[in-house]
TrEMBL record:
Keywords: Methyltransferase, Transferase. It comes from the Bacteria. Residues 58-153 form the Methyltransferase type domain. GO terms for molecular function: methyltransferase activity. This is Methyltransferase. GO terms for biological process: methylation. It holds the Pfam family Methyltransf_12.
Amino acid sequence: MSDYRTVNLASWDERAPAHAASADYGVAAFADDPAHLSAVVRYDLPLLGDVSGLRGVHLQCHIGTDTVSLARLGATMTGVDFSPAALTEARRIAALAGAAVDYVESDVYAAADALGRGGFDLVYTGIGALCWLPDIRRWARVVADLLRPGGRLFLREGHPVLWALADPLPEGGVLALEHPYFEQPEPTVWTEGGTYVETEAEFVHNTTHEWNHGLGETVTALIDAGMAVTGLAEQDSVPWEALPGHMRRVAHDEWQLTDRPERLPHSYTLQAVRLPV
């Protein structure tokens, strides 16, 4: 396997400015409306609850719109990402929003070394993050290392069944499982242009390496790392058009399978707390 980190970093560095410029991220709204929150965080609120006064870290924060949103809800936030281009945009957006967010450039697996252990009340991981990581057990240990005893993980992620579907779907929209559901040693390698937002930008770095992680694998990894699972909810929508041509936009800027969406778990929210050592 080639160096997945180098390959993926080239893709993310190239796409971060296009993401920040796209209307899909709504960056201007953060400057125009001091109460504005990202659609992702607005969706999370019923399960997320009150975060005011918490010291939080957002792993794989990308351009930081969710990080700024959590800061606006009263948390003292640190954002972590391995892409310097993404963090350049994140710092610019935080300044536009008037949000005091500390951004740290680090690979997610090195986050506890970069930030220190046991100092956070909240680890937040937004949707579309875990697929870039080859080892879910290693990730879980980082989460546990960052949290103080009693501190909480909040994770919403694309469902591993969704990630395992053929892309594009076969003719007729049949839900066909084509890619691994369980974590594999070798990645699924994608080579495709474009990105998940509307943009006229053309990209050069179009290869990425990705991994799926089964729901049981993720839960077990957290338990083995010293966490207690406190909530697991599966949802029938995701915040992007994951299956182009086969989805409709629904409430909260989410997307849902057009034909019998009850067949597909689209995403899930997993919460856990750090047990006393």
